[in-house]
């Protein structure tokens, strides 16, 4: 009872102080909200919407169930999740935050996952997409395509390790299943696909409309969180709270033999990964130290993304705290992998032009340049795509309301 009252007082005080800060710094708050909106409608919305819509269609047509049967012998022994986890993992890696959470919640709502399995799955299926790592961070912030390979490998290897660690989550809460020697059955997979499609008997037009409405609704929520945390990050800096905590963070970084200059970017990255990565790249610290901190920021994914995930999971019985713990694991593991991969993947290739891995890095540089070009296209055409999609959303929603 006392704890509940303290929580109420804390939340009320926090919201009140934030309102006062917004009134005290209107110009800075407005500029921060514009930065958040700029990121959302240029990049986040146009890059995530196609994946969300296609995912909903694949679920409705039974393709995900088909994939689940095929991948069951792989996903179950490795991560102790059903085979559909392979689909969620692939879509989460391709589209980025918070696609893994949305798809996991969707699978849980359809009871294709238990609550424990969903908590395991969501812990390692949320990650930064290659477009952001190569296009925005490596080329855009660090101006070095080769860094993208180190960051990407460290990020995804860390994610795999998190999945292997979280397979032990909830072992005592979940009843043991009898082990079967059932292998991959294409015939059974097709049967499951057909049953799922017949069970979801919505016409194609209705299914597509539902997919668009659900996806845009989720993206509007994501946009609100991005803008909110962009403003919150700016306010914390203006009232010197970031600088205060940076004193303690700098001591911690010194214990790890990292540059204390990275303390402020590190704290900013705890709230929002884009700003944190950008600030980290602008410091005077050594390149290795900046890559290590950026890897942690990408793995931790920031309170902004975590708030988005918490909002999505709140519609189910999936608990948030295992996801939060997994993000801490991911941050540290990605940083460790960055340190281990730095010399073989970056320094050796940079120092020796005759090294046999140079052609690989030429390919990486070409891929990074392609990602950078795609990133620039999103920044130029993304707003147009977003406005047209929102216009379509208003039309579909109006029709649904009139039909009722």
From TrEMBL:
It comes from the Bacteria. Residues 42-140, 219-313 form the Nucleoside transporter/FeoB GTPase Gate domain. The chain crosses the membrane at residues 47-71, 78-101, 121-142, 149-168, 211-232, 244-271, 291-312, 324-342, 381-402. It holds the Pfam family Gate. Keywords: Membrane, Transmembrane, Transmembrane helix. NCBIfam families: spore_ylbJ (TIGR02871). This is Sporulation integral membrane protein YlbJ. The lineage of its organism: Bacteria, Bacillati, Bacillota, Bacilli, Bacillales.
């Amino acid at each position: 009872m006392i704890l509940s009252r303290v929580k109420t007082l804390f939340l009320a005080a926090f919201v009140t102080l934030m309102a006062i800060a917004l009134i005290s710094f209107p110009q800075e708050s407005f500029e921060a909200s514009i930065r958040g909106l700029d990121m959302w409608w240029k990049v986040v919305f146009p890059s995530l919407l196609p994946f969300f819509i296609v995912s909903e269609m694949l679920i409705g047509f039974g393709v995900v169930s088909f994939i689940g049967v095929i991948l069951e012998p792989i996903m179950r022994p490795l991560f102790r999740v059903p085979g559909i986890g392979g689909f969620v993992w692939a879509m989460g890696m391709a589209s980025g935050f918070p696609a893994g959470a949305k798809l996991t919640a969707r699978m849980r709502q359809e009871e294709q996952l238990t609550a424990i399995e969903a908590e395991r799955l969501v812990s390692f299926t949320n990650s930064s997409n290659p477009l952001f790592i190569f296009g925005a961070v490596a080329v855009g912030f660090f101006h070095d395509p080769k860094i993208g390979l180190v960051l990407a490998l460290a990020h995804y290897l860390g994610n795999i390790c998190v999945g292997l660690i979280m397979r032990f989550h909830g072992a005592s809460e979940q009843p043991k299943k009898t082990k079967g020697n059932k292998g991959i059955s294409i015939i059974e997979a097709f049967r499951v696909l057909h049953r799922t499609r017949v069970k979801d008997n919505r016409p194609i037009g209705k299914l597509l409309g539902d997919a668009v409405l659900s996806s845009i609704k989720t993206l509007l929520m994501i946009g609100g969180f991005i803008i909110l945390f962009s403003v919150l990050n700016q306010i914390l800096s203006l009232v010197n709270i970031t600088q205060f905590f940076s004193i303690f963070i700098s001591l911690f970084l010194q214990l790890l033999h990292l540059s204390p200059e990275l303390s402020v970017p590190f704290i900013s990255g705890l709230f929002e990964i884009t700003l944190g990565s950008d600030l980290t790249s602008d410091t005077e610290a050594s390149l290795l130290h900046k890559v290590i901190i950026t890897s942690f920021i990408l793995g931790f994914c920031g309170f902004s993304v975590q708030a988005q995930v918490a909002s999505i999971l709140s519609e189910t019985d999936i608990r948030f705290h295992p996801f939060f713990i997994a993000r801490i694991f991911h941050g540290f593991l990605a940083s460790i992998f960055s340190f281990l991969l730095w010399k073989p993947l970056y320094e050796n290739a940079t120092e020796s032009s005759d090294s046999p891995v140079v052609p690989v890095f030429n390919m990486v540089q070409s891929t990074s340049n392609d990602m950078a070009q795609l990133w620039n296209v999103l920044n130029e055409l993304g707003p147009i795509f977003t406005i047209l999609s929102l216009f379509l959303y208003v039309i579909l929603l109006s029709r649904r309301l009139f039909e009722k």
